[in-house]
Amino acid sequence: MTERTTVLACIDGSSFTGAVIDYSAWVAYTVNAPLRLLNNIERGRMPSSDLSGSIGLGAREELLDELVELESRRSKILMEQGRIMLTHATERACDFGVAGIESLQQHGDLTDSLIDMEHEIRVLVVGIRGEDHEDREKGIGAQLETIIRALHRPILVVNRPFTQAPQRMMLAYDGSEASRKALNMIISSPLYQEMECHVVHVNNNAEEAQALLAQASSELEAAGLQATTETLTGDVVPALLEYQHDHQIELTVMGAFGHNRLRELLFGSLTAKMLVQSKVPLLLLR
Length: 286
Known about the structure:
Distance between the termini: 24 Å
Order of helices and strands: EHEHEHEHEEHEHEHEHHE
Radius of gyration: 22 Å
Structural class: alpha/beta
Number of strands: 10
Shape: elongated
Low-confidence stretches: 45-49
Helix content: 40-55%
Number of domains: 2
Largest sheet: 10 strands, mixed
């Protein structure tokens, strides 16, 4: 398999799994790329081998043996459960007409697994929350920010069921390296060719915003794409969400997590706020 050709979907049994399968199959079919369905099994946490000095040596060894056996049984159950999920996921993805579908099970840390496969990933598709964090009705999964920061591939974060191929997309454009990558991706990928494209920039300086949007619009038109451009004012996240709602946007494309971790610590991350508050899937680039 050549580099950066695969649409990779993370399948974990959460309530978003069906949507992850559907969105990843739609992407794979539209860009004519193979689809890989990944079920990653993370190892359970084991107690320290010394346990407590109050436990006798024999009892300690017996308890550790039981814990090892329990972890082995747990792993076998999760593997079988994962195989069933992958079988169903493959059948579901086939309905989209995807040419090549591969299923894969791996053990270990999910982020590490994805980093190992990064050179093969064209787009990664994940749910907003995994199976272990279903109780968080609002918020994002514990590993999602780590994955987004670790990978330098497009990541589609799914937060609602797939009903149809998105018809309207919004690019949050600020002229940064990540947003320029997003612009170039829209120009070069067949995924966006049939979508109504909205390019927006949040800036209270109208002259600066107009120049930035004119440059983006010019590049899109040179590639044969028509785009609606709009300058938004006020706080960034509310402005983007309001435009998203008012124009019935079905997919938002934006850069993810800047390099200034101190600023993000003090004021909060724009990416994290959009992930939490957006009602439509986000395609993120770094």
